[in-house]
Design brief:
The protein has 117 residues and is mainly beta. The protein is 3% helix and 50% strand. It has one helix and ten strands; from the N terminus they run E-E-E-E-E-E-E-E-E-H-E. It has a four-stranded antiparallel β-sheet, with no helix packed on it. Strands 4, 6, 7 and 8 form a four-stranded antiparallel β-sheet that branches.
Length: 117
């Protein structure tokens, strides 16, 4: 439902705009990912070239970059409980429901790179 983006630093290296900060999750997760928007934080009409996201609580955060500044999606994956004989299993996407406390309480950092026009 809502990903709050907080920028802690950004710089222009002459070729790219680099942005770092944190993400805070609230509300409910939507199947297929929750919208990530940098609108108002970086110049308009710039889609990110790359976004890396990492947390500390053991969840995996993937970003599917969209065509615009507000069209990217963050997918959150976690491991389903399993028994010892199941072996290694793939991480599954969260179900469409309220975010678990492990996500809403996680410290999630991002690093994004945007092309300069």
């Amino acid at each position: 439902m809502a990903i709050a983006v907080t920028v802690s630093d950004k710089w222009d290296d002459g070729k790219r705009l680099h942005v770092v900060g944190t993400l805070a999750f609230s509300g409910s997760y939507a199947t297929g990912g929750d919208t990530l928007s940098f609108a108002g934080l970086v110049p308009a009409s710039r889609a990110p070239l790359v976004v890396r996201v990492s947390g500390q609580a053991g969840f995996i955060y993937e970003v599917n970059i969209g065509s615009g500044i507000a069209n990217s999606l963050v997918l959150v994956r976690g491991q389903e409980p399993t028994n010892a004989t199941a072996g290694v299993i793939a991480l599954t996407q969260l179900a469409a429901a309220a975010y678990p406390a492990g996500v809403t309480g996680d410290t999630v950092r991002f690093y994004a790179i945007f092309k300069l026009l």
